[in-house]
Amino acid sequence: MRLTQLEYFIDIATTQNMSRSARNLHVAQPSLSRTIHALEDELATPLFTRNGRALELNSAGKKSLEVATATLGTLNTGIEDLNHYIDQTDNQVTIRIESSTTMIPGILEYLHRTVPDVSIHLIQHGLENNLLVHYDFEFSTHPVKDNENQLMLSEEIYFGVAENSPLSRAAVDNKITVSELAQNQLICTEPNPLRELVLRTLQHHGATIRPSFSTGDRATIIGMVRSGVGLCFIPQCSWPGVDLTGVRLLSFAPEPITRNIYLSMPTSSVRSSKHLTVAKAICDYMTTLK
């Protein structure tokens, strides 16, 4: 049974006239007659009592009309719901992030300015059912398996010291060694991928350093460093708006610490033109940080 058969049957049941229904449906009358005969053959029962050109539903036809009307009604409702869902999802983009970052306010402001008709929904990695919750994009410091990953930013991770500190005065070529780091207090962010990268790198170079103080407030971290309490790590680009007055940035020796930030997209996601516009806007914003 095809949907076309049901649509034709409902119209003929309403008009009770094959010629009139052919005009309504914009089909040739012989084709319409063949369609109805095929439906009756499939159901193995006549649906109409025929009297010349006049058609009248018989008992089987009346029951079939109830079923056909309900079926098409359910289908049309489903199509309307699907179109409504598509309209909503076209205008909403869900972004998943690994951890809190000072880039987020700037990204959201930039997206609001460049794609104002798109609603941005944020979810944080680890706070929701990650395998079940749909997302369109993820900010990640590593390529996510089975996703399409676009490198947006590669940045150096510096160590910040007070400008008037002994470490600053002793620094050669704006560099700091692992032994110098090990002799000073390290003020850190709360656990996040950046902190893990820095501590793992220091451990690789023979220094297992325990942070002496942790906070999620970047301004507090910089303020403590500026006061000479200790030193901290500072990413080159991804802490926009942080006041570094009175702080000197030193590169790690023997080799600078670097990290990458990717825009990761599930390959199974259906991407509309608006989703692609948002992806481009995010990448454009990242270029402003370099």
TrEMBL record:
GO terms for molecular function: DNA binding; DNA-binding transcription factor activity. Keywords: DNA-binding, Transcription, Transcription regulation. GO terms for cellular component: protein-DNA complex. Residues 1-58 form the HTH lysR-type domain. CDD domains: PBP2_LTTR_substrate. SUPFAM superfamilies: Periplasmic binding protein-like II, Winged helix' DNA-binding domain. Belongs to the LysR transcriptional regulatory family. This is Putative transcriptional regulator. The lineage of its organism: Bacteria, Bacillati, Bacillota, Bacilli, Lactobacillales.
